[in-house]
């Protein structure tokens, strides 16, 4: 049998498997520390959200050993199952970091990294380096695929998390080059998710990251046991680019300045509000612009939202809370507008099931018309016009919400977000140890082992 032809994934794998942690620039490690802090906060805030109990119950059934901790507790499960639960919690409030187009890397990468680091007794430096190399790996594939078109074709772009997650696991579990290749191929073969769960507003949204995290670790473990995986991952007849890219990929992007530039920071959005990233500019604008009461409180006020095609597709349906009202709220432009104008805040409390079913907010949301504007090529661009009963008119417009790289959130804002998430957490461990966790994370690059941080988190 002839050997499979060369695939450009080989260059990425060769680099990812051999680059030494000491070669990663300090500023890149610092950015990964920021991601670690942000996602631990998201886990704390999402600790008991809808779907989490089911995830934990099933993970216990699926575990045959205790390898890694369910963070915030003494409980240990099989490493893929611990990562699964931790990832569901990190994604639950949709408060986690995101890269265009809808890839939420941190809420699967961080659970994989912590579970694999506990399994392998890795150092803080090794863990941060794995996160950096893996994000660079996934982002290069992302950019190459989008070179000739923005690629939504119905699939959930969190499939990119399988690439980053398996690279993290493969590095921390110290797979050899052949095992590394097999692990990446196996992870790709687990290709997962469609965008329909966003449009139908189901709890499946919260489980995508859990499945990505679990499958990434499982792929590395299968490869470690000698199971082979697909080779032509990117350019095979059924490889990533042929399945998911809308146009011809730019293969040069895959290796351009490889080992010099570690991609990720330039594209990562850190959310300051717990809802879909497409709506961040809207919340930010409405909360930071004085809007007179006659527009906010008078039921005769008329509202029209001009939205980008992506905003209309993902978040433009009518607001009618269903069996999962929290998901309805997180992915509804109408709810976001009503919440900001009536309550003047957007914390996790405003996205609970109770808050999402507030009759006053629902009634306000029904009055908002939405018009798609094809010329709005930036996905979070919007224009909201309000007409008061006295004839006065107010128009608010924006794009690039706070947290996107073009309007970046600084480290202090992420520290503040972490502390708020811990204060609101139903988990005693996160609430009582928030300051200690923060200290451990800020010294994590020098930590000889991940265990002191994990000890505080249990």
Automatic annotation (TrEMBL):
One of the Pfam families matching this protein, by short name: MmgE_PrpD_N
Domain MmgE/PrpD N-terminal: 11-248
Domain MmgE/PrpD C-terminal: 273-423
Stored InterPro entries: MmgE/PrpD_sf (IPR036148), MmgE/PrpD_sf_1 (IPR042183), MmgE/PrpD_sf_2 (IPR042188), MmgE_PrpD (IPR005656), MmgE_PrpD_C (IPR045337), MmgE_PrpD_N (IPR045336)
Assigned protein family: Belongs to the PrpD family.
Name recorded for this polypeptide: MmgE/PrpD family protein
